[in-house]
Amino acid sequence: MAITSSAKKAHRSSERKRVFNQRRKQAVEQIVKKIKKLLVEKKVKEAQKLIPEAYKAFDKASKEHTIRKGAADRKKSRLTLLIARTK
User: Which fold does the domain 5-86 belong to in CATH?
Assistant: First the structure.
């Protein structure tokens, strides 16, 4: 447990940031899950329409350092490849 006042303040701010980070990660997970579900159902065109939304979620998460930029780029690339292979 934090003892000094600065440590207590840092702990409070980290709890606030945690909420935002979880929201961003969930947004990424939800859109990827939605795309994968469409691909299983063989609805490739609908999945392609959701790609910009997925890119936006990944970019926002990497911009705010929720996930690393390289990880976001890699996941975007793999998601695009998955859709291309499903055609």
Answer: Methane Monooxygenase Hydroxylase; Chain G, domain 1 (1.20.58)
